[in-house]
Amino acid sequence: INFDGTAKGSLGLAVVGGIIRNDAGKMEAAHAEAIGNKSNNYVEAYAMLIGLKWVNTLHIKKLYVEGDSQYIINVMN
Q1: How confident is the model at residue 39 (pLDDT cuts 50, 70, 90)?
Q2: pTM beyond 0.70, yes or no
Q3: N or C, which terminus of the chain has less Cβ within 10 Å?
Q4: Options 3.40.50.1580, 3.30.870.10, 3.30.450.40, 3.30.420.10; which CATH number does 2-76 get?
Protein backbone atom coordinates (compact mmCIF):
# COMPACT_ATOMS: atom_id res chain seq x y z
CA ILE A 1 0.00 0.00 0.00
CA ASN A 2 0.98 3.60 -0.52
CA PHE A 3 -0.56 6.06 1.91
CA ASP A 4 -0.44 9.80 2.45
CA GLY A 5 -2.22 12.47 4.38
CA THR A 6 -2.03 16.23 4.59
CA ALA A 7 -3.38 18.90 6.89
CA LYS A 8 -3.46 22.62 6.22
CA GLY A 9 -1.33 24.11 8.97
CA SER A 10 -0.64 22.41 12.27
CA LEU A 11 -4.30 21.62 12.95
CA GLY A 12 -6.19 22.26 9.75
CA LEU A 13 -8.48 20.71 7.19
CA ALA A 14 -7.11 17.23 6.51
CA VAL A 15 -7.30 14.77 3.64
CA VAL A 16 -6.05 11.17 3.52
CA GLY A 17 -5.56 8.75 0.68
CA GLY A 18 -4.01 5.51 -0.35
CA ILE A 19 -3.63 2.98 -3.11
CA ILE A 20 -3.16 -0.77 -3.29
CA ARG A 21 -0.92 -2.14 -6.02
CA ASN A 22 -0.44 -5.74 -7.14
CA ASP A 23 2.90 -7.55 -7.54
CA ALA A 24 3.39 -5.96 -10.97
CA GLY A 25 2.87 -2.47 -9.54
CA LYS A 26 -0.52 -2.03 -11.18
CA MET A 27 -3.03 -0.07 -9.13
CA GLU A 28 -5.85 -2.30 -7.91
CA ALA A 29 -7.79 0.15 -5.73
CA ALA A 30 -7.63 3.73 -4.44
CA HIS A 31 -9.28 5.73 -1.69
CA ALA A 32 -9.34 9.38 -0.58
CA GLU A 33 -11.42 11.30 1.93
CA ALA A 34 -11.53 14.53 3.89
CA ILE A 35 -11.47 13.92 7.66
CA GLY A 36 -11.92 17.37 9.21
CA ASN A 37 -9.36 19.34 11.21
CA LYS A 38 -6.48 17.17 12.38
CA SER A 39 -2.71 17.37 13.02
CA ASN A 40 -0.18 16.24 10.43
CA ASN A 41 0.98 13.19 12.41
CA TYR A 42 -2.62 12.13 13.10
CA VAL A 43 -3.46 12.40 9.41
CA GLU A 44 -0.47 10.30 8.31
CA ALA A 45 -1.20 7.64 10.94
CA TYR A 46 -4.90 7.57 10.03
CA ALA A 47 -4.09 7.20 6.32
CA MET A 48 -1.87 4.21 7.08
CA LEU A 49 -4.49 2.67 9.38
CA ILE A 50 -7.16 2.93 6.69
CA GLY A 51 -4.82 1.18 4.25
CA LEU A 52 -4.00 -1.62 6.68
CA LYS A 53 -7.68 -2.21 7.48
CA TRP A 54 -8.44 -2.25 3.77
CA VAL A 55 -5.72 -4.86 3.14
CA ASN A 56 -7.09 -6.97 6.00
CA THR A 57 -10.60 -6.84 4.52
CA LEU A 58 -9.21 -8.03 1.18
CA HIS A 59 -7.34 -10.89 2.95
CA ILE A 60 -3.97 -9.79 1.56
CA LYS A 61 -1.25 -11.59 3.52
CA LYS A 62 1.98 -10.14 2.10
CA LEU A 63 2.45 -6.43 1.61
CA TYR A 64 4.80 -3.51 1.55
CA VAL A 65 3.82 -0.26 3.21
CA GLU A 66 5.11 3.01 1.78
CA GLY A 67 4.51 6.51 3.05
CA ASP A 68 6.35 9.81 3.21
CA SER A 69 6.12 10.34 6.98
CA GLN A 70 9.39 9.20 8.53
CA TYR A 71 7.82 9.60 11.98
CA ILE A 72 4.97 7.17 11.24
CA ILE A 73 7.26 4.67 9.50
CA ASN A 74 9.64 4.73 12.51
CA VAL A 75 6.74 4.23 14.94
CA MET A 76 5.58 1.19 12.96
CA ASN A 77 9.05 -0.33 12.77
Answers
A1: very high
A2: yes
A3: C
A4: 3.30.420.10
